[in-house]
UniProtKB/TrEMBL annotation:
Protein name, UniProt field: Globoside alpha-1,3-N-acetylgalactosaminyltransferase 1
Signal peptide start and end residues: none
Keyword Lipid metabolism attached: no
Coiled-coil positions: none
Taxonomy of the source species: Eukaryota, Metazoa, Chordata, Craniata, Vertebrata
Protein localization: Membrane
Major subcellular site: membrane
Length: 341
């Protein structure tokens, strides 16, 4: 085929035109991304000080070299262990506040344990996830004895009736089943995160958003200095909570666990099934649901661990590594308060 020189020039011009057009389209697409659609900095021409008036976050510069050296603040699977001084309280709260989340908090007050509710709730209002949306779920067989406590804005309390029992072991252990059912029926529609706490306790200092994570457990205050063979895990292979002497990371307290709703749902479901399997085999684990919780967390590692600051015991003298007691079990007269001894 033969092209005249005019036609050649025309084709050349056409190609140059197409290349320029493609270049322009490409340029304006990326320009748009940079200018706002992707980075949302559409107010680029506004001077920095005005632009960032509401978004600037001022806090102490994090250090790579200086920090707590008296405690370990990370597990071998790289989950943080939350100790005072390892986080910036205002910074973590700010990050989680922007997500507008709701935290469910379950607490059981069966039989005489309703007596613990007032202190639990009043101190929670002072220290527990202050300025966050919190929904308390109080499980009790005595709804009329639930005290009325003034709740701050964004906080709500539901009372859910549950049966009583003449064995404290059963009350404690059945929490897994009852929490599982409550998540299914109600809580999953009303919250994002959940904490399941013992009622015979008080808050003494800040418990904030640093405690939130996918799956959260607390290190038991009586066992954090012990070797694993001294942990009070269930040691009989006949129980589904069995943990051999040469296994185990930490001893977790049954009084505090939490995380995302779906994670805690699975945890309670598995523990409930294993408690029921044990019951069918006429075996009760050494520390009921706490033993099953420990077994679950050994094979399903928590993504965040709370230090014993988050579960102290009023009977225990404060140790030097515990700089602040945030939540602690009160001293109770077991014979007086429990249905059986
Ligand atoms: C610090 C810690 O980890 N404590 C654990 C431990 O002893 P505790 O001495 O802390 O057990 P506990 O008597 O506090 O019972 C656990 C919880 O069950 C509820 N309750 C219990 C009895 C009753 O009559 N009414 C009632 O409502 C209540 O919410 C109480 O806080 O062993 C328990 C039984 O295995 C649980 O594992 C606890 O979490
Ligand atoms: Mn307790």
């Amino acid at each position: 085929m033969h092209f005249s020189s005019n036609a050649k020039q025309f084709v050349l011009l056409l190609i140059v035109g197409i290349v320029l057009l493609l270049g322009y389209v490409h340029y304006s697409f990326f320009n748009e991304r940079l200018n706002g659609v992707w980075f949302d900095s559409s107010n680029r021409d506004i001077p920095v000080d005005k632009d960032q008036r509401n978004t600037r976050l001022l806090y102490k510069q994090p250090s790579v070299l200086a920090g707590r050296t008296d405690v370990v603040a990370v597990t071998p699977w790289l989950a943080p262990i939350v100790w005072d001084g390892t986080f910036d309280p205002d910074l973590v709260d700010t990050i989680y506040k922007s997500m507008n989340i709701t935290i469910a908090t379950t607490v059981f007050a069966v039989g005489k344990y309703v007596l613990f509710l007032r202190d639990f709730l009043e101190t929670a209002e002072k220290h527990f996830l202050v300025d966050f949306n919190v929904r308390y779920y109080v499980f009790t067989d005595r709804p009329d004895d639930v005290p009325s406590v003034n709740l701050s804005q964004g906080r709500h309390l539901s009372v859910i009736q549950v049966p009583g029992s003449n064995r404290w072991q059963e009350i404690s252990a059945r929490r897994m089943e009852i929490i599982q059912t409550a998540i299914e029926r109600q809580i999953s529609r009303e919250a994002d995160y959940i904490f399941c706490l013992d009622v015979d306790s008080k808050f003494h200092a800040r418990w904030g958003a640093e405690s939130l994570g996918r799956l959260v457990a607390v290190i038991h205050p009586w066992f954090y200095q012990a070797t694993r063979d001294h942990f009070t895990y269930e040691r009989r292979p006949a129980s589904t909570a069995y943990i051999p002497m040469d296994e185990g990371d930490y001893y977790y307290a049954g009084a505090v666990f939490g995380g995302l709703l779906e994670e805690v749902y699975t945890l309670t479901k598995v523990c409930r099934n294993q408690l029921e399997e044990d019951a069918r085999n006429s075996i009760e684990a050494a520390w009921q649901e706490e033993s099953h919780l420990n077994r679950y967390l050994l094979y399903n590692k928590p993504s965040k661990l709370l230090s014993p600051e988050y579960q102290w015991d009023d009977k225990k003298t404060k140790t030097k590594e515990v700089k602040v007691i945030r939540f602690s079990s009160v001293v109770k007269n077991y014979a007086e308060i429990r249905p059986n001894v």
